[in-house]
Amino acid sequence: MPKLSNRVARLNEDGSDGWEVFYRARAMVRDGQQVTELTIGEHDITTDPTILEAMHRAARAGHTGYASVPGTDALRETIADRVQARTGVPTTRENVLVTPGGQAALFAAHMAACTPGDAALFVDPYYATYPGTIRAASAHPVAIRTRAERGFLPDPAEVHRLAADFRATSLLVNTPNNPTGAVYPRLTLEALASVVQARDMWLLSDEVYDTQVWQGSHLSPRALPGMARRTLVIGSLSKSHAMTGSRIGWLVGPEDAIGSLIDLATCTTYGVPGYIQDAAVFALSQGESAEQAVAEPFHRRRQIILDALEKQDIVGVIPSQGAMYLMLDIRKTGLSGRDFAERLLDQHRIAVMPGESFGRSAAGHIRVALTVEDDRLWEAVHTLCDFAKGLADA
């Protein structure tokens, strides 16, 4: 067989995509075992039936052929209106590219920001696909290490140092953050914006969790002075409307950049099915109350875990201001996050994500997804804490 390109062969340079525990848990479920899955950000509800009905109507009405590659005018305008209303930044459909989910928008953003060989900065801990996405764009991923003791917020001075040392062309941030739940405060974002402006970089902002904010408020860096012309924002309906499988997302940025990315979409995805876009217009038209209904269980379950953890002193918690996860500190057990997760799955049939799946900064932690019903989550957390205490006491 001919040799594969480095672009493909080196997507996962360390030989792991970070999802081994998840794959094992799913295999156990397929074999008929009862597993409490607290791994991926998949809602325990399905897409609202009224959205599915809108999708069905659009398909039956004939919107099943090629759709406009940039996205339908109706959906691009709806997204633009939503973004402008939430950020105060003037936004039109010419600033919007509709993509097959947020992941496609993330890839497109790096294709726009990075020439092959360029360094692309991203914050560690990170969503597991970030380094591979950067490599897929033929760029060089450079992780910005953070510390749990600082709430996993990036140090702007370190960002500036790395940007200068590697001559980076882009910085990727994610707030509210997966996996840590951190919501970046204004001062942090302003400092990062200053670095980006001083180094003439692109800022890529992954905002797919913008409807899941439990403390503080979400600020899009695109809304900061002078940042609209150098910011690309990744958005999606996956988390806000429980539409993960519909693969509907977007990229918002300067008109010229979006125009060039439409050319990229023509050569890659060739757009998103029209009937799904029609359903997305309907979903967004339901307003913030519909989004809050999807988000509310995660807010409630976050408190369930916090209440449970107050009754013990082995498992620590990183205060989470947003998103559908909590990061737990299990370093007192003496195990790595990976070993803890493997043993918890083997001994108690509870699946969590090792912190190491999200980078070196999260070593000794685990990520818990708030994606099962309340009673089952309560039971799982108490079992987890008892398991951790047994390890610490051994």
Automatic annotation (TrEMBL):
GO biological process: amino acid metabolic process
Alphabetical keyword list: Aminotransferase, Pyridoxal phosphate, Transferase
Cofactor requirement: pyridoxal 5'-phosphate
Gene Ontology MF terms in the entry: L-aspartate:2-oxoglutarate aminotransferase activity; pyridoxal phosphate binding
Superkingdom: Bacteria
CDD domains, alphabetized: AAT_like
Presence of keyword Transferase: yes
Catalytic activity: L-aspartate + 2-oxoglutarate = oxaloacetate + L-glutamate
Enzyme class, broadest EC rank: transferase
EC id: 2.6.1.-
InterPro entries xref list: Aminotransferase_I/II_large, AspAT/PAT-like, NHTrfase_class1_PyrdxlP-BS, PyrdxlP-dep_Trfase, PyrdxlP-dep_Trfase_major
Domain Aminotransferase class I/classII large: residue ranges: 35-383
One Pfam short name: Aminotran_1_2
Annotated family: Belongs to the class-I pyridoxal-phosphate-dependent aminotransferase family.
PANTHER family xrefs: ASPARTATE AMINOTRANSFERASE
Designated name of the protein: Aminotransferase
Originating species: Thetidibacter halocola
